[in-house]
Amino acid sequence: MSRSARVPARADDPSRSRSRRDLGTAVGIVVVLAAAIVLRFVTRSELWFDEALSVNISRVPFSELGDALRQDGAPPLFYVLLHLWTDVLGTGDVAVRALSGVISVATLPLAYFAGRRLAGRIGAWGAVLVLASSPYAIRFATETRMYALVMFLVLWGYLALRRALEAPTWSRLAVVAIVTALLVYTQYWSFYLIAVVGLGLTYAAWRGPVGDRLAARRILLAVVVGTLTLLPWLDTLWFQLGHTGTPWGEAVVPWFGFAVAMSAFAGGYVHAESWPLLLPLLVLPLLALFGAAVDARRIELDLRTRPAVR
Predict the structure, then answer these.
(1) How confident is the model at residue 12 (pLDDT cuts 50, 70, 90)?
(2) 245 class by beta-carbon count within 10 Å (0-12 exposed, 13-18 middle, 19+ buried)
(3) Region label for 43, one of left (φ > 0), alpha (ψ between -120 and 50) or beta (otherwise)
(4) What is the pTM of this model?
């Protein structure tokens, strides 16, 4: 054996330091993910009013679901899934909430693939960890309501749209239409998201890069087809608009709505633990919009904003 082979590695060997850092990062990711998954199935409270109503409506026969939802003001998809779920696992508090927990856990791989498309492997794990540790996502993973399903479908829709922009094949366009249909049958607020996406596609179809215009037009058509699947439900929707809603709600100015949204993302303004999270929730998007990494320790700000993020 040569003399050099017998010399032990120095304590400050960069390769050893990198290995320890990588191991620590991997352990940290595993701990965060394990805690996040457990928290999606842990809750001590009893079902609150909307949850109990969801379970009650989901247990009616499918032939009576439309009539039952005329009193609730929601589309039927989540209730159909909950009906099938409770047929197997029963209607206990833990059992009915577990549906949202499972859907929320299934959303994490979608966050990985979405993050990887935007920012490579580091961005992928960053997206997973943000969603996994989000108090907002954890809260709705523990409620028997459709909001965890909305998050799942939104991320799935993002991936489907990006793939269709790359190659607008019939199969990829069909996925866009299917996800759009599932969204409108899950939550009516999805109309706002679909409208914004539709406006963006409309602009890309007529004013975007020449090579992207055909794809944007085909995707826009797929989104329209998916939205039109709601036509058989319009009679029920029209009745719901006139007879259900949130009577305690009132109009607010946009900046107040933004403040409420940010506090909800942090975990809710009624919880003191959420307030320290507001600062990173405000700063990180601004850094993403205005900042570009110079190296591992420095960020350069550009007041014109970064085009890709904008």
Answers:
(1) low
(2) exposed
(3) beta
(4) 0.86
Bridge partners, 291 (sequence order): 301
Alpha-carbon distance values, 23 to 9, 29, 135 (Å): 18, 10, 26
Q: Are 115 and 129 in contact (CB under 8 A)?
A: no
217 near 198, Cβ under 8 Å?
no
For the record, the structure tokens of 216 come out as 């944007």
- Of 74, 257, 68, nearest to 183 by C-alpha is 74
pLDDT digits (tens, 9 = 90+) for 186-198: 999 999 999 999 9
- The 3-state DSSP class for residue 108 equals helix
* Total residues found in the chain within this entry: 310
Residues contacting 216, CB < 8 A, separation 6+: 165, 201, 202, 204, 205, 208
Q: How far apart are CA 21 and CA 273, in angstroms?
A: 30
Q: Is the pLDDT of residue 154 over 90?
A: yes
CA distance 42 to 105: 13
In a 3-state reduction of DSSP, which class is residue 51? Answer: helix
Summarised one tens digit per residue, pLDDT across range 264-294 is 888 877 777 778 888 888 888 888 888 888 8
Tell me the DSSP string of 124-178: HHHHHHHHHH-HHHHHHHTSSSSHHHHHHHHHHHHHHHHHHHH---HHHHHHHHH
DSSP secondary structure letter of residue 292? E
What is the C-alpha to C-alpha distance for residues 55 and 60, in angstroms, rounded to an integer?
A: 9
Alpha-carbon Rg for the chain, nearest whole angstrom, is 23
CB 63 within 8 A of CB 36: no
Contacts for 191 with CB less than 8 Å, ≥ 6 apart: 184
Give the confidence band of 249 by pLDDT, cuts at 50, 70, 90. low
